[in-house]
Write a structure and sequence with these properties.
This protein is an alpha/beta fold. The chain has helices at residues 16-31, 44-55, 66-70, 87-97, 108-122, 140-151, 157-160, 169-180, and strands spanning 3-7, 35-38, 60-65, 80-84, 100-103, 130-133, 163-166. The protein is built from 8 helices and 7 strands.
Length: 181
């Protein structure tokens, strides 16, 4: 099966529903036989994601910069924990290790990862599928802004269309799997 990288929040102060969404995502990835690639953290949605994958028998690969290991937020239970020297090299390695990308709700770090993967796809540096889960309209304001960019020719329609939008975990994984075959 595929190595699917999931971008999501690592905040320790999130509502339980977001942690549940992350755990559900990890478990569903594992049930479908995929390997989880994540940012290598053990807190917030990132921790719940990895725990969910492991609870369903999944393999986890964490990619984390040494600075976050030093803060003691590394997922030491990962099947494979790769430590990088910077956030930039973390993103590069996550892209290299993954066959597809799934984005859950998150903040600046999540958006940074999403836009890195999306930008490199628009430049044809990879052709890996990307799906955004827009649970409860979380990303609707961002998507409206991006559509406005496209309307003003700051974003090509073809580039905008590289990102698939879904609202549920099963729908997201179905979309990724259909693009991986």
């Amino acid at each position: 099966m595929a190595a699917i990288c999931v971008f999501c929040a690592s905040s320790r102060t999130l509502d339980q529903r977001w942690l549940d969404l992350a755990a559900e995502t990890g478990a569903e990835l594992a049930r479908r036989g995929h390997t989880l690639v994540s940012g290598g953290g053990c807190v917030g949605m990132m921790g719940a994601l990895a725990d969910g994958a492991r609870s369903a028998g999944g393999r986890t690969v964490g990619v984390i910069p040494q600075s976050l290991v030093d803060l003691e937020v590394a997922d030491l239970a990962s099947d494979e924990l790769l430590v990088t020297d910077s956030m930039a090299s973390r993103k590069t390695l996550m892209i290299e290790k993954s066959d597809a990308f799934l984005t859950l709700p998150g903040g600046l770090g999540t958006l940074d990862e999403l836009f890195e993967v999306w930008t490199t796809a628009t430049l044809a540096l990879h052709t890996k599928p990307m799906v955004l889960i827009d649970t409860d309209g979380f990303y609707r304001p961002l998507l409206d802004w991006l559509d406005a960019l496209a309307d003003q020719n700051f974003l090509k329609t073809a580039g905008r269309n590289l990102l698939t939008l879904t609202t549920t975990v099963p729908e997201a994984l179905n979309a990724l799997e259909s693009r991986l075959t």
